[in-house]
Amino acid sequence: MEYILLAIVGFAFLFYSLSIRQLARTEITGPMFFVLVGLALSYFWPQEITPLENNMSQLLPLIELTLSIFLFTDAAKSKLTVLKHSFQYPSLLLFVALPLTLLFGVVGAIFLFSELSLLQAALVAIILTPTDAALSKGLLADTHVPEKIREGINTESGLNDGLCVPLFLVMLLLAQNPENSLTTIDTLFIFLRELGIASVVAVLAITVFIPTLKVAVAKHYFAKNSSPFLLIGFVMMTFSITQYLHGSGFIAVFVSGLLFDYFAPTKMKSTLIKDSEHIAEFVALLIWCLFGFVCGYLVLQEISWQIFVYALLSVTLFRMLPVMLSLQFSQLKIKERLTFAWFGPRGLASIVFTLMILETDIAAKYQIATIAMTTILLSVFLHGMSTKPIANSYTER
Protein backbone atom coordinates (compact mmCIF):
# COMPACT_ATOMS: atom_id res chain seq x y z
CA MET A 1 0.00 0.00 0.00
CA GLU A 2 2.86 2.40 0.76
CA TYR A 3 4.14 2.13 -2.80
CA ILE A 4 0.67 2.89 -4.16
CA LEU A 5 0.59 5.98 -1.95
CA LEU A 6 4.01 7.08 -3.22
CA ALA A 7 2.93 6.44 -6.81
CA ILE A 8 -0.13 8.68 -6.34
CA VAL A 9 1.99 11.46 -4.83
CA GLY A 10 4.49 11.09 -7.68
CA PHE A 11 1.69 11.34 -10.22
CA ALA A 12 0.43 14.46 -8.43
CA PHE A 13 3.85 16.10 -8.84
CA LEU A 14 3.97 15.04 -12.49
CA PHE A 15 0.50 16.44 -13.17
CA TYR A 16 1.27 19.65 -11.27
CA SER A 17 4.53 20.21 -13.17
CA LEU A 18 2.92 19.60 -16.57
CA SER A 19 -0.10 21.84 -15.93
CA ILE A 20 1.28 24.54 -13.63
CA ARG A 21 0.41 27.38 -16.03
CA GLN A 22 -3.15 26.14 -16.45
CA LEU A 23 -3.55 25.71 -12.69
CA ALA A 24 -2.32 29.28 -12.19
CA ARG A 25 -4.99 30.55 -14.58
CA THR A 26 -7.66 28.82 -12.49
CA GLU A 27 -6.18 30.41 -9.34
CA ILE A 28 -5.07 27.08 -7.87
CA THR A 29 -1.75 27.52 -6.07
CA GLY A 30 0.77 24.76 -5.34
CA PRO A 31 -0.17 24.50 -1.62
CA MET A 32 -3.87 24.41 -2.51
CA PHE A 33 -3.32 21.61 -5.05
CA PHE A 34 -1.26 19.42 -2.72
CA VAL A 35 -3.50 20.01 0.29
CA LEU A 36 -6.39 18.75 -1.85
CA VAL A 37 -4.29 15.72 -2.84
CA GLY A 38 -3.58 15.02 0.84
CA LEU A 39 -7.25 15.37 1.78
CA ALA A 40 -8.23 12.97 -0.99
CA LEU A 41 -5.63 10.43 0.15
CA SER A 42 -6.89 10.60 3.74
CA TYR A 43 -10.40 9.80 2.51
CA PHE A 44 -9.35 6.65 0.59
CA TRP A 45 -6.50 5.51 2.84
CA PRO A 46 -7.64 3.19 5.69
CA GLN A 47 -6.98 4.96 8.96
CA GLU A 48 -6.41 1.78 10.95
CA ILE A 49 -3.24 0.94 8.97
CA THR A 50 -1.77 4.42 9.34
CA PRO A 51 0.17 5.00 12.62
CA LEU A 52 -0.26 8.74 12.27
CA GLU A 53 1.48 9.93 15.42
CA ASN A 54 4.56 7.73 14.91
CA ASN A 55 4.92 8.87 11.31
CA MET A 56 4.66 12.52 12.33
CA SER A 57 7.42 12.02 14.91
CA GLN A 58 9.71 10.52 12.29
CA LEU A 59 8.98 13.24 9.74
CA LEU A 60 9.35 16.18 12.14
CA PRO A 61 13.15 16.59 11.60
CA LEU A 62 12.63 16.81 7.82
CA ILE A 63 9.84 19.37 8.27
CA GLU A 64 11.97 21.37 10.73
CA LEU A 65 14.85 21.35 8.25
CA THR A 66 12.59 22.60 5.46
CA LEU A 67 11.42 25.48 7.64
CA SER A 68 15.06 26.20 8.48
CA ILE A 69 15.92 26.53 4.78
CA PHE A 70 13.07 28.98 4.26
CA LEU A 71 14.00 30.91 7.42
CA PHE A 72 17.54 31.26 6.11
CA THR A 73 16.54 32.27 2.57
CA ASP A 74 13.85 34.67 3.81
CA ALA A 75 16.36 36.37 6.10
CA ALA A 76 18.96 36.37 3.32
CA LYS A 77 16.48 38.14 1.02
CA SER A 78 15.45 40.73 3.60
CA LYS A 79 17.78 43.32 2.02
CA LEU A 80 18.96 44.97 5.23
CA THR A 81 20.80 47.63 3.24
CA VAL A 82 17.54 48.59 1.53
CA LEU A 83 15.63 48.60 4.81
CA LYS A 84 17.92 51.35 6.07
CA HIS A 85 16.11 53.69 3.69
CA SER A 86 12.63 52.12 3.51
CA PHE A 87 12.07 50.57 6.90
CA GLN A 88 8.77 52.26 7.75
CA TYR A 89 6.24 49.67 6.57
CA PRO A 90 8.04 46.47 7.68
CA SER A 91 8.82 48.10 11.04
CA LEU A 92 5.17 49.03 11.62
CA LEU A 93 4.04 45.53 10.64
CA LEU A 94 6.63 43.80 12.84
CA PHE A 95 6.68 45.96 15.96
CA VAL A 96 3.12 47.29 16.09
CA ALA A 97 0.83 44.98 14.10
CA LEU A 98 2.47 41.70 15.17
CA PRO A 99 2.08 42.20 18.96
CA LEU A 100 -1.52 43.38 18.44
CA THR A 101 -2.25 40.30 16.30
CA LEU A 102 -0.84 38.11 19.05
CA LEU A 103 -2.96 39.91 21.67
CA PHE A 104 -6.15 39.58 19.60
CA GLY A 105 -5.40 35.89 19.10
CA VAL A 106 -4.98 35.27 22.84
CA VAL A 107 -8.18 37.13 23.77
CA GLY A 108 -10.15 35.36 21.04
CA ALA A 109 -8.90 31.92 22.15
CA ILE A 110 -9.77 32.60 25.81
CA PHE A 111 -13.26 33.82 24.85
CA LEU A 112 -14.11 30.93 22.50
CA PHE A 113 -12.31 28.11 24.32
CA SER A 114 -12.87 28.52 28.04
CA GLU A 115 -11.21 25.15 28.75
CA LEU A 116 -7.83 26.45 27.54
CA SER A 117 -5.47 28.04 30.05
CA LEU A 118 -3.88 31.42 29.38
CA LEU A 119 -0.61 29.79 28.25
CA GLN A 120 -2.43 27.36 25.98
CA ALA A 121 -4.39 30.24 24.43
CA ALA A 122 -1.10 32.10 23.95
CA LEU A 123 0.34 29.05 22.17
CA VAL A 124 -2.62 29.01 19.78
CA ALA A 125 -2.07 32.71 19.05
CA ILE A 126 1.71 32.52 18.54
CA ILE A 127 1.38 29.47 16.25
CA LEU A 128 -0.91 31.49 13.99
CA THR A 129 0.94 34.81 14.09
CA PRO A 130 3.79 34.10 11.57
CA THR A 131 2.95 34.71 7.91
CA ASP A 132 4.15 32.89 4.80
CA ALA A 133 4.73 34.99 1.69
CA ALA A 134 5.14 31.79 -0.36
CA LEU A 135 1.34 31.48 -0.39
CA SER A 136 1.11 34.90 -2.10
CA LYS A 137 3.67 34.33 -4.86
CA GLY A 138 1.29 35.58 -7.53
CA LEU A 139 1.10 38.96 -5.81
CA LEU A 140 4.83 39.22 -5.10
CA ALA A 141 5.74 38.35 -8.69
CA ASP A 142 3.35 40.86 -10.31
CA THR A 143 5.27 44.01 -11.14
CA HIS A 144 2.03 45.99 -11.46
CA VAL A 145 1.64 45.77 -7.69
CA PRO A 146 3.58 48.66 -6.10
CA GLU A 147 7.08 47.61 -5.10
CA LYS A 148 6.68 49.00 -1.58
CA ILE A 149 3.79 46.56 -1.02
CA ARG A 150 5.62 43.56 -2.45
CA GLU A 151 8.82 44.34 -0.58
CA GLY A 152 6.96 45.10 2.64
CA ILE A 153 4.97 41.83 2.59
CA ASN A 154 8.03 39.78 1.68
CA THR A 155 10.21 41.42 4.35
CA GLU A 156 7.55 41.07 7.03
CA SER A 157 7.07 37.40 6.20
CA GLY A 158 10.81 36.77 6.30
CA LEU A 159 11.42 38.53 9.60
CA ASN A 160 8.29 37.74 11.62
CA ASP A 161 9.18 34.03 11.73
CA GLY A 162 12.43 34.94 13.43
CA LEU A 163 10.62 37.12 15.96
CA CYS A 164 7.95 34.50 16.69
CA VAL A 165 10.31 31.54 17.19
CA PRO A 166 11.78 32.70 20.54
CA LEU A 167 8.32 33.67 21.84
CA PHE A 168 6.97 30.26 20.85
CA LEU A 169 9.87 28.45 22.54
CA VAL A 170 9.37 30.34 25.80
CA MET A 171 5.60 29.70 25.82
CA LEU A 172 6.18 26.04 25.00
CA LEU A 173 8.55 25.70 27.96
CA LEU A 174 6.05 27.32 30.31
CA ALA A 175 3.07 25.33 28.98
CA GLN A 176 4.92 22.06 29.57
CA ASN A 177 5.38 23.03 33.22
CA PRO A 178 1.91 24.16 34.31
CA GLU A 179 2.70 23.56 37.99
CA ASN A 180 5.51 26.13 37.82
CA SER A 181 8.26 23.55 38.23
CA LEU A 182 10.21 26.05 36.13
CA THR A 183 10.56 29.45 37.72
CA THR A 184 10.65 32.64 35.67
CA ILE A 185 14.42 32.79 36.17
CA ASP A 186 14.80 29.17 35.00
CA THR A 187 12.73 29.87 31.88
CA LEU A 188 14.68 33.05 31.15
CA PHE A 189 17.97 31.19 31.60
CA ILE A 190 16.92 28.39 29.20
CA PHE A 191 15.75 30.93 26.64
CA LEU A 192 18.93 33.02 26.87
CA ARG A 193 21.02 29.87 26.67
CA GLU A 194 19.24 28.77 23.48
CA LEU A 195 19.49 32.27 22.02
CA GLY A 196 23.14 32.64 22.99
CA ILE A 197 24.20 29.26 21.60
CA ALA A 198 22.27 29.94 18.39
CA SER A 199 23.89 33.36 17.93
CA VAL A 200 27.41 32.09 18.58
CA VAL A 201 26.99 29.15 16.17
CA ALA A 202 25.52 31.47 13.52
CA VAL A 203 28.36 33.98 13.76
CA LEU A 204 31.07 31.30 13.73
CA ALA A 205 29.43 29.44 10.84
CA ILE A 206 29.14 32.57 8.67
CA THR A 207 32.66 33.67 9.63
CA VAL A 208 34.00 30.42 8.17
CA PHE A 209 31.47 29.95 5.35
CA ILE A 210 31.72 33.26 3.48
CA PRO A 211 35.54 33.38 3.16
CA THR A 212 35.48 29.71 2.10
CA LEU A 213 32.83 30.54 -0.48
CA LYS A 214 34.89 33.43 -1.85
CA VAL A 215 37.99 31.25 -2.18
CA ALA A 216 35.98 28.50 -3.92
CA VAL A 217 34.57 31.03 -6.39
CA ALA A 218 37.95 32.62 -7.08
CA LYS A 219 39.65 29.26 -7.68
CA HIS A 220 36.67 27.69 -9.51
CA TYR A 221 36.40 24.81 -7.04
CA PHE A 222 32.67 24.24 -7.42
CA ALA A 223 30.41 23.88 -10.46
CA LYS A 224 27.06 25.46 -11.14
CA ASN A 225 25.26 22.12 -11.02
CA SER A 226 26.28 21.71 -7.36
CA SER A 227 25.42 25.26 -6.28
CA PRO A 228 21.91 24.33 -5.01
CA PHE A 229 23.55 22.14 -2.38
CA LEU A 230 25.78 24.88 -0.94
CA LEU A 231 23.21 26.75 1.13
CA ILE A 232 21.15 23.65 1.92
CA GLY A 233 24.26 21.91 3.25
CA PHE A 234 25.19 24.99 5.25
CA VAL A 235 21.69 25.27 6.76
CA MET A 236 21.59 21.54 7.62
CA MET A 237 24.95 21.81 9.37
CA THR A 238 24.14 25.02 11.25
CA PHE A 239 20.68 23.86 12.35
CA SER A 240 21.83 20.41 13.45
CA ILE A 241 24.91 21.58 15.37
CA THR A 242 22.85 24.18 17.21
CA GLN A 243 20.18 21.64 18.14
CA TYR A 244 22.86 19.21 19.34
CA LEU A 245 24.33 21.93 21.57
CA HIS A 246 20.82 22.58 23.02
CA GLY A 247 20.39 25.88 21.25
CA SER A 248 17.59 26.93 18.90
CA GLY A 249 18.42 25.81 15.38
CA PHE A 250 15.68 28.05 13.97
CA ILE A 251 17.20 31.16 15.52
CA ALA A 252 20.68 30.11 14.37
CA VAL A 253 19.72 29.76 10.70
CA PHE A 254 17.70 32.98 10.82
CA VAL A 255 20.64 34.96 12.22
CA SER A 256 22.91 33.25 9.68
CA GLY A 257 20.60 34.38 6.89
CA LEU A 258 20.71 38.00 8.05
CA LEU A 259 24.52 37.88 8.22
CA PHE A 260 24.73 36.18 4.83
CA ASP A 261 22.56 38.93 3.32
CA TYR A 262 24.86 41.60 4.71
CA PHE A 263 28.29 40.06 4.04
CA ALA A 264 27.94 37.67 1.07
CA PRO A 265 29.02 38.78 -2.42
CA THR A 266 26.03 40.38 -4.14
CA LYS A 267 26.62 38.78 -7.56
CA MET A 268 26.34 35.20 -6.39
CA LYS A 269 23.92 35.67 -3.47
CA SER A 270 20.64 35.75 -5.42
CA THR A 271 21.61 32.76 -7.59
CA LEU A 272 22.51 30.58 -4.61
CA ILE A 273 19.32 31.50 -2.78
CA LYS A 274 17.12 30.85 -5.81
CA ASP A 275 18.73 27.46 -6.49
CA SER A 276 18.30 26.38 -2.88
CA GLU A 277 14.67 27.48 -2.82
CA HIS A 278 13.84 25.20 -5.76
CA ILE A 279 14.85 22.13 -3.75
CA ALA A 280 13.20 23.43 -0.57
CA GLU A 281 9.99 24.15 -2.46
CA PHE A 282 9.74 20.52 -3.59
CA VAL A 283 9.95 19.35 0.03
CA ALA A 284 7.51 22.10 1.09
CA LEU A 285 4.91 20.83 -1.39
CA LEU A 286 5.36 17.33 0.04
CA ILE A 287 4.70 18.81 3.49
CA TRP A 288 1.53 20.49 2.21
CA CYS A 289 0.40 17.08 0.94
CA LEU A 290 1.13 15.58 4.36
CA PHE A 291 -0.67 18.49 6.00
CA GLY A 292 -3.80 17.80 3.93
CA PHE A 293 -3.53 14.11 4.84
CA VAL A 294 -3.38 14.91 8.58
CA CYS A 295 -6.22 17.42 8.28
CA GLY A 296 -8.40 14.64 6.88
CA TYR A 297 -8.08 12.89 10.25
CA LEU A 298 -7.69 15.68 12.79
CA VAL A 299 -9.61 18.66 11.44
CA LEU A 300 -12.55 17.33 9.46
CA GLN A 301 -13.53 14.94 12.27
CA GLU A 302 -13.06 17.29 15.22
CA ILE A 303 -14.07 20.71 13.86
CA SER A 304 -16.70 22.65 15.82
CA TRP A 305 -18.36 25.99 15.26
CA GLN A 306 -16.05 27.62 17.84
CA ILE A 307 -12.98 26.36 15.99
CA PHE A 308 -14.32 27.53 12.62
CA VAL A 309 -15.22 30.97 14.01
CA TYR A 310 -11.77 31.35 15.55
CA ALA A 311 -10.09 30.28 12.30
CA LEU A 312 -12.15 32.79 10.33
CA LEU A 313 -11.37 35.59 12.78
CA SER A 314 -7.68 34.67 12.81
CA VAL A 315 -7.25 34.98 9.04
CA THR A 316 -9.34 38.15 8.85
CA LEU A 317 -9.95 40.53 11.77
CA PHE A 318 -7.14 39.38 14.08
CA ARG A 319 -4.69 40.19 11.28
CA MET A 320 -6.43 43.01 9.43
CA LEU A 321 -7.36 45.30 12.34
CA PRO A 322 -3.80 45.47 13.78
CA VAL A 323 -2.29 46.11 10.34
CA MET A 324 -4.85 48.81 9.48
CA LEU A 325 -4.23 50.47 12.86
CA SER A 326 -0.44 50.31 12.50
CA LEU A 327 -0.54 51.82 8.99
CA GLN A 328 -3.20 54.41 9.81
CA PHE A 329 -0.81 57.35 9.84
CA SER A 330 1.34 56.23 6.91
CA GLN A 331 1.09 57.74 3.45
CA LEU A 332 -0.40 54.57 1.97
CA LYS A 333 -3.76 54.71 0.21
CA ILE A 334 -6.66 52.74 1.67
CA LYS A 335 -6.36 50.04 -1.01
CA GLU A 336 -2.66 49.59 -0.29
CA ARG A 337 -3.30 49.34 3.46
CA LEU A 338 -6.01 46.74 2.83
CA THR A 339 -3.60 44.74 0.66
CA PHE A 340 -1.03 44.73 3.46
CA ALA A 341 -3.74 43.78 5.95
CA TRP A 342 -5.19 40.93 3.92
CA PHE A 343 -2.00 39.17 2.88
CA GLY A 344 -0.98 37.45 6.08
CA PRO A 345 -1.33 33.77 5.06
CA ARG A 346 -0.36 31.07 7.54
CA GLY A 347 2.08 28.51 6.25
CA LEU A 348 5.11 26.38 6.98
CA ALA A 349 6.13 28.00 10.29
CA SER A 350 2.63 27.45 11.72
CA ILE A 351 2.70 23.80 10.58
CA VAL A 352 6.07 23.18 12.26
CA PHE A 353 4.94 24.86 15.49
CA THR A 354 1.80 22.70 15.47
CA LEU A 355 3.78 19.48 15.00
CA MET A 356 6.14 20.52 17.80
CA ILE A 357 3.08 20.90 20.05
CA LEU A 358 1.97 17.36 19.17
CA GLU A 359 5.39 16.08 20.28
CA THR A 360 4.83 17.40 23.84
CA ASP A 361 2.68 16.16 26.71
CA ILE A 362 0.60 19.35 26.97
CA ALA A 363 -2.92 18.37 28.07
CA ALA A 364 -4.79 20.27 25.34
CA LYS A 365 -2.33 19.57 22.53
CA TYR A 366 -4.87 17.96 20.19
CA GLN A 367 -7.32 20.83 20.59
CA ILE A 368 -4.52 23.37 19.97
CA ALA A 369 -3.43 21.41 16.88
CA THR A 370 -6.98 21.21 15.53
CA ILE A 371 -7.52 24.96 15.95
CA ALA A 372 -4.21 25.74 14.27
CA MET A 373 -4.68 23.32 11.38
CA THR A 374 -8.22 24.54 10.70
CA THR A 375 -6.89 28.10 10.49
CA ILE A 376 -4.01 27.11 8.21
CA LEU A 377 -6.38 25.13 5.97
CA LEU A 378 -8.75 28.07 5.69
CA SER A 379 -5.86 30.44 5.01
CA VAL A 380 -4.44 28.28 2.20
CA PHE A 381 -7.67 28.55 0.23
CA LEU A 382 -8.82 32.07 1.14
CA HIS A 383 -5.44 33.69 0.49
CA GLY A 384 -4.63 31.42 -2.43
CA MET A 385 -7.85 32.19 -4.32
CA SER A 386 -7.68 35.93 -3.62
CA THR A 387 -4.07 36.47 -4.75
CA LYS A 388 -4.69 36.75 -8.48
CA PRO A 389 -7.83 38.94 -8.33
CA ILE A 390 -6.11 41.46 -6.06
CA ALA A 391 -2.95 41.48 -8.20
CA ASN A 392 -5.14 41.94 -11.32
CA SER A 393 -6.86 44.93 -9.71
CA TYR A 394 -3.52 46.77 -9.77
CA THR A 395 -2.94 45.66 -13.38
CA GLU A 396 -6.32 47.02 -14.47
CA ARG A 397 -5.63 50.30 -12.77
Report mean pLDDT, rounded to a whole number. Answer: 83
CATH topology: Na+/H+ antiporter like fold
Determine Rg (CA atoms, Å): 21 Å
Helix content: over 70%
Structural class: mainly alpha
Number of helices, where a helix is a run of at least 4 consecutive DSSP H or I residues: 18
Summarize the helix and strand pattern as letters: HHHHHHHHHHHHHHHHHH
Number of extended strands: 0
What's the CATH architecture?
Up-down Bundle
Beginning-to-end CA distance, first to last residue: 52 Å
Number of domains: 1
Tell me what you see in this structure.
The termini are far apart. Helix 9 packs across helix 10, helix 15 crosses helix 16 and helix 17 runs antiparallel to helix 18. The chain is an all-alpha fold and 397 residues long. It has a single domain, classed as Na+/H+ antiporter like fold, CATH 1.20.1530. The longest helix has 37 residues, at 266-302. It has helices at residues 2-18, 20-25, 30-44, 52-76, 80-83, 88-112, 118-127, 137-141, 147-175, 184-218, 227-244, 249-263, 266-302, 305-315, 317-326, 334-342, 348-358, 365-396.
Layout of helices and strands, plus pairs?
Blueprint: H1 2-18, H2 20-25, H3 30-44, H4 52-76, H5 80-83, H6 88-112, H7 118-127, H8 137-141, H9 147-175, H10 184-218, H11 227-244, H12 249-263, H13 266-302, H14 305-315, H15 317-326, H16 334-342, H17 348-358, H18 365-396
Helix pairs in contact: 1-3, 3-13, 4-9, 4-11, 4-12, 4-13, 4-17, 6-7, 6-9, 6-14, 6-15, 7-9, 7-18, 9-10, 9-12, 10-11, 10-12, 11-12, 11-13, 13-18, 14-15, 14-18, 15-16, 17-18
